[in-house]
Amino acid sequence: MKALGIDPGLSGALAIVEFIGGIPVLVDAIDMPSTGTGAKARVDIIAAAEWIAKHAPSTAYIERAQAFPRQGASSGFSYGRSVGAIEAVVALCQIPMTLVDASAWKQRLHLPGKDKEAARQRALQLFPSQHALLALKKWHGRAEAALLVIASLERAQ
Q: Structural domain of residue 138, as residue ranges?
């Protein structure tokens, strides 16, 4: 079974995790495709849809969007627009999706709330053969997208 994990937002990421003999394998991960810059930045829905279709996952797990404390109206609107765009892409690809609370999946994997580097380090432990996909600290979104899948399926079992 292939599952898509999504850390939403313009600085988020997409990851494909396949379970082979019950063992999770990180197949691929990319930063959220985007177009434009600054205030005109948007999720590149065509690139996202093509990447998702190439991997043909059977299900998707998306981190539930929420407003952040002290987040400005403009950045909150941009984040919400990005989340809606990626959710629409998944729906149009006809992939069943489950929204997962960040606190829930992080708690299942014993990760501290806002420590992005801890998530990347945990993903490197779980997927040592995919170091190239997680090598840079800025790729923490890829790690979170992959871990989101593992924690969600762990809960379902």
A: 2-156
